[in-house]
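May I ask for a protein sequence together with how it folds?
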Amino acid sequence: MFEFKPLSPEGVEAALERAEHYRLLNEPREAESICRDILAIEPDNQRATILLILALSEQLGDGGGEYEAEARDHLKKLNSEYERNYYAGIVCERRAKELLAHGTLGSGPMVYHLLRDAMTWFEKAEDCSPPGNDDSVLRWNTCARIILKNRLRPPPGPPGT
């Protein structure tokens, strides 16, 4: 029905800045669209891939499964092991927060599980993080505090264990 107009290669840097700007304005759909335009002409653009992962994970409340699956798919395109692990943790953490904010009664064990998954990813990121980069430690601590503050517990095991 529509054929999207391509960006000029000279416009990529400004488009990246605009995508970040829209993310900061809490307009992830606009950031997502811009990232898709950038990736259409530069499929290996790492910054656009990261911004797209973040924009998709910011929309988990709008159709969680679809956005989460696509964000996870884009993780494979990241060249850095650290970034693959770190942003996998971000996706898990954001899914957990969305479920915590809008979940149903009894969703606590699932939130706990998602946060523990995020923490595992952050630990993997920490193992290969660049010197002086403690972002994964900060995210791990945030997840731990969410678990403690909300008194989240894992699902009960089978009887007798």
Q: What stands out?
A: The helical segments are 12-24, 28-41, 46-57, 64-75, 81-102, 108-127, 135-149. Residues 122 and 138 are 9 Å apart (CA to CA). The chain has two domains: 1-78, 80-154.
